[in-house]
Batch of 2 targets.
Target 1
Amino acid sequence: MTETSGDLRVGIVGVGAMGADHAERVAHRVSGARLVAVSDADAARAGDLAARFPGVRAVTDPLALVADDDVDAVVVASPGAAHEEQVLACLEAGKHVLCEKPLTMDGESSLRVVRAERAAGRPLVQLGFMRRFDPEYARLKAVLDSGRLGRMLLLHNTHRNKSVPDTFRSEMIVRDSLVHEVDVARFLFGEEITEVTVYSPAPTSAAAEGVVDPQVSVFRMQGGAVVTNEVFVTNQVGYEVRCEAVCERGSAMAGRPWADLYTTVAADDGEGLWGGGVPADFLGRFARAYDLELQAWADASRRGEVVGPTTWDGYAATVVCEAGMRSLTTGEPASVTLVDPGPAS
Ligand code: ISE
């Protein structure tokens, strides 16, 4: 990327897997943006990452990074529990933010962020629901909106990860994984979710002790449509994310496994096999989506605008996941109540 004086100077707070991936992206693939500073609760990790990029500073205090006059805009990729304070600090400083999901850990705090943004007088926050930027999901949305297939009746989402650490408990399958399907359903239908039921099938023997994996859930949409979700985070194969929209006059799929490169391979028994690859994780599967997401964020921030998912989308997703976590415990349907944040100031 060629640097110009008009580049958006970006700081990244939280440089675990996602934040480090975004650092690479901002430094090398996003035009009109320049990585200037990184921060992490693990100072050594921030220092090591900064050392890979000439001119990038490691800042110990994330709030100091936010306040830094040499930082125009901030990517918040820290653990969810730190988001509220960091996003509020960005709003206070009048800086554009790309906040990874979840917006915050509960509905009340997410609502505080929605209200703080409204009080700031202009939108500043884009939520990191990258699926909206994935070319396949974006095309699916365009086909649905064109009306060619008629009204959408059902949506079936599949979300599988190869493996997760033992610390990834049942509730995190809802809050960190199902949350993407929550956003996909709201995005594709253009409606809110009113009720969630989470079912707990017998777990795979590969799941950590006490973890409900896979999980199957059902969303009821405002207009009466139904969404089914399978989330299975220990499939032992690879990252498989796809969905099928069933409409009155047709259906459409995104993330078809067979859309991958067709390959043949010799097998030991002499039979030969055919197939394609399965990406190992979301960083690979959604690399293009993340590139487009960050580029759209940088371009919009330079114009003083926000595109893509908003704090309201983050708030709604948090509230739906809270209901999902209640249903996970009781096995009963849990209703979703969204609170009107009130008028913008
Ligand atoms: C992770 O946090 C993500 O956001 C991924 O997109 C999702 O597939 C994974 O299950 C989550 O743990």
Target 2
Amino acid sequence: MRKNPGQFFSAAVERASAPAASGQEKRDVFDLHSYLKERAQIIERALAQSVEEGAGAAARLHEAMRYSLLAGGKRLRPVLVLASCEAVGGKVDAAMGLACAVEMIHTYSLIHDDLPCMDDDDMRRGRPTNHKVYGEAIATLAGDALLTDAFKVLARSAHNSAPPALVLETIAELAWAAGSAGMVAGQVIDLLGEGKSKTVEELEELHGKKTGALFLASVRGGARLGGANEAQIESLDAYARSLGLAFQVVDDLLDVQGTPEQMGKRTQKDVERGKATYPAILGIERSLDLARELETRAHRAIAGFGDSADALRHIATFVVERKL
Ligand code: GRG
């Protein structure tokens, strides 16, 4: 289905790496393409180790978990974990457990979201959805296991690489972001709101929970594990909130403007399911303006950081310019 995802990915990365406005020459040397490629490789290796191939009765479960977890994807959330850690001068090893945990939770949410009882989708990340290959029961359990094991992976990092007190705080924040106050709440609001109109404020609340909370936990957690002080976390918090919302505005636009080949999944879903979206409420042009405004806000939030935050700056641009 997805013919050449790299083509679209590279184009957006090139724009995000393009020379910035005058006065920002120092940032032009940053090569986002190489950065994302190198980070994705480290993350892929760590993820493959986080969910090992099972034996015996559980082999099928582990196969289903790995099928979706190692199916590619942009790896945006774990990259944000590592970039936030480095932005405050931390070493990526300290945040690798969190990087794996957020991607495992994200993957569980995609598997469950694709189930017939939710969005009922056949394609994800350019391949058949988990339940199409393994059946609904195993897909549900693969999602459950990814969610649970995510916290095991994060908790274990306290022994290996990060101060236990910081890991504990990060576990609590990640549980909040993924649970009944965050992502799951957002999903419920989304499902119950189908066919009903929404204001821009209501849409912001929905997406703040459904997708924004995990972005927020990724950035805040990565920074915390990297040794950030309160002021740095506050600035990065503002960055993450703008970035998460920009991501969602662009996601809505891509659902209208993208093709299944480009996206590796079905498009035009929001209209079909009667979901309120930014383009439906604001129109295409104003939605694009909003995404750019949010990108500017994200950049402004971390203006006080030095070169160590260049990756975060370029990622904000990439999120708005992306075509998948
Ligand atoms: C089932 C509890 C539960 C929650 C589901 C996140 C979510 C809530 C559903 C995913 C459906 C969806 C399309 C949400 C919109 C934004 C989003 C999360 C898109 C997918 O994220 P990407 O683009 O995906 O980062 P990749 O595949 O690149 O990782």
